[in-house]
Design brief:
The chain has 225 residues and is mostly helical. The protein contains 8 helices and 2 strands. The chain is flat, with a radius of gyration of 20 Å.
Length: 225
């Protein structure tokens, strides 16, 4: 394991992500002439398209956004004051980046397929995909070392490494089981799935914040005694 995070090392490990994104761009170029001038880019809770964009935006918008966010995730550890901790969870961080890219590119490919005339129920694909992303985060979260960009960032986790560890173990369980529920939500209606996602996301965020505060208070009381 390298003792420090470097872009050169990460690019050596993640070259295939650029290859995947390039392949999606190439596919976009190939199907571009066959798409309508206005393509569906957003769907309502019933799975019906409710917003349209230009052909160029529909083909290249999401891949460009994916590339931009991936490059940001690749670069931020370099400027993190705690960048020395990244090698401790390098594999987890790579899996998180890969999971994000796969989610975004999968969503884009499904959108392209829909606009090419294939009957795809995007609403039944998105929620399980988000669930898989949550499961990935849940499995990796307990291994994330303290830093300023990745993980559960509250004043209390950033102030105390013990609180950080406990909160990420707790948050990891919440994300994992929230993901399992979302994966199983395909049997529910689109509206119920939407509200389930909203409740799980907000609930997990609030629960981890409160938990980190309580852990911090407990730790401070222990020091005082």
């Amino acid at each position: 394991m390298s003792d420090k995070y470097t872009l050169k090392t990460e690019l050596k490990h993640e070259w295939y992500i650029f290859l995947m994104i390039a392949a999606v761009f190439l596919l976009g170029v190939m199907v571009y002439p066959t798409l309508p001038e206005q393509v569906a880019i957003h769907w309502n809770l019933e799975g019906e398209p409710d917003d349209y964009g230009s052909r160029f935006y529909g083909v290249f918008g999401l891949p460009l956004l994916t590339l931009g966010i991936y490059l940001l995730l690749l670069f931020v550890p370099v400027i993190d004051p705690r960048r020395r901790n990244y090698p401790q969870f390098a594999k987890v961080y790579r899996w998180i980046k890969l999971g994000f890219v796969l989610f975004m590119l999968g969503l884009h490919l499904a959108t392209l397929a829909y606009n090419l005339g294939y009957k795809i129920a995007l609403d039944r694909l998105v929620f399980p995909a988000v669930g898989l992303l949550f499961v990935l985060l849940g499995r990796g979260m307990p291994r994330i070392a303290p830093n300023y960009f990745v993980g559960i960032q509250t004043p209390w986790t950033l102030a105390n490494t013990e609180v950080w560890s406990k909160t990420h173990r707790f948050g990891g369980k919440l994300f994992f089981w929230s993901g399992i529920l979302l994966i199983g939500s395909t049997v529910l209606t689109s509206r119920v799935r939407f509200w389930l996602l909203l409740v799980l996301t907000i609930g997990t965020a609030l629960a981890t914040a409160v938990y980190s505060y309580l852990c911090f208070r407990q730790t401070e009381r222990g020091k005082a005694e």
